[in-house]
Design brief:
With 296 residues, the protein is an alpha/beta fold. It has helices at 4-7, 70-78, 104-110, 132-144, 148-161, 167-171, 180-191, 210-227, 238-244, 262-267, 272-281, 286-295; strands spanning 30-39, 44-54, 59-63, 85-94, 97-98, 115-119, 198-202, 230-235, 247-252, 255-261. The chain is 39% helix and 23% strand. It binds adenosine-5'-diphosphate and magnesium ion.
């Protein structure tokens, strides 16, 4: 059994690439090019040209006030636009594949294993009548094809990885027994259960108090570093995006008004709207972040 090479049949042998073949560089995990989304009911272009690229271990932030099109951009990327919404321009590619070509089956295979997401209000994504460990185990079992027993063990390990202090205990608990911060960790555990390459966090820390929010952001940063997870971080709060992201897009009313490396956008905002966002958030500690970055 172990001496595979001896028993290898002709069919098992894959043709080797020609020796002079140079591997092309891997396509970005996610590439949006001038993405436009329209709402056919209101006959409005809700997203008016969003472009960015994301490679492993990188993080892009989308910031802007409520209603600016951040969530619709995420939903377009995840293939879950509301009924009468449609991508009407540009393209979205995941690992080089245009999502417009994906069948429902291919989407199902992709979700969780390649691209995953966490939203605000974790409780609504979890089943209140099933222990949280069992819910995560089910994701692992379905997506990774493990046995029930292996999946149960994997769920506890994931709860440990998202820094829940007593993962065995939490695994056996129901949603109503957990705090908002714990629930968001559980949801992150479920989202990363099948080792996705890309995680979209849409207002994932918005409902949490400042201390817990900081802990969740640290956790995302750690996953990014440890697992090379690529992140799309969406928040109306510039400080959240500033803390995690290499690049920032500032959206207003469906339009990207400013985009660039986080440092540049924060230190030298060119658009008046960005300046306003920075001024608004200074009281919440963005100042401190900027000073810390400058000092380092
Ligand atoms: N399910 C929906 N049905 C109808 N309109 C929607 C829906 N979701 C969002 N919109 C509209 O699309 C625009 C952008 O919304 P959204 O992307 O959710 O903003 P953000 O996430 O930046 O707060 C808003 O005008 C909003 O009212
Ligand atoms: Mg939103």
């Amino acid at each position: 059994m172990t001496t595979l090479s001896k028993n290898r049949t002709q069919e098992d042998v894959r043709p080797l690439p020609a020796p002079d073949t140079v591997e092309p560089p891997a396509p970005p995990v996610l590439a949006l090019r001038d993405v436009r989304v329209s709402d056919h009911v209101s006959d409005r272009e809700i997203v008016q040209g969003v472009s960015f690229e994301l490679t492993p271990g990188k993080a892009v932030g989308i910031v802007g006030e409520s209603g600016s099109g951040k969530t619709i951009t995420c939903r377009a990327t995840l293939g879950i636009l509301p009924p009468h919404f449609e991508i009407t321009g540009g393209s979205i590619a995941i690992n080089g594949t245009d999502i417009g070509t994906l069948t429902p089956q291919q989407w199902t295979a992709l979700r969780g294993t390649t691209i995953s997401a966490v939203f605000q209000d974790p409780a609504s994504y979890l089943n209140p009548s099933i222990r949280v460990g069992a819910q995560i185990a089910e994701v692992i079992r379905l997506k990774k094809g493990l046995t029930r027993r292996e999946a149960r063990h994997g769920a506890v390990e994931l709860l440990r990885a998202v820094q829940l202090s007593d993962p065995e205990l939490v695994s056996g608990q129901y949603t109503y027994e957990l705090s908002g911060g714990m629930l968001q960790r559980v949801l992150i555990a479920a989202a990363i259960a099948a080792d996705p390459q890309l995680l979209i966090a849409d207002e994932a820390t918005t409902a949490l108090d400042v201390t817990v929010q900081a802990e969740i952001l640290d956790l995302l940063a750690e996953l990014r570093e440890r697992a090379g997870l690529a992140l799309v971080v969406v928040s109306h709060d510039l400080a959240v995006v500033a803390q995690l992201c290499d690049e920032v897009l500032v959206m207003r009313q469906g339009e990207v008004v400013e985009q660039g490396p986080t440092e540049a956008v924060l230190h030298h905002p060119r658009h008046e709207y960005t300046r306003m966002l920075i001024a608004e958030h200074e009281q919440y500690g963005l100042d401190k972040f900027l000073t810390a970055k400058e000092a380092s």
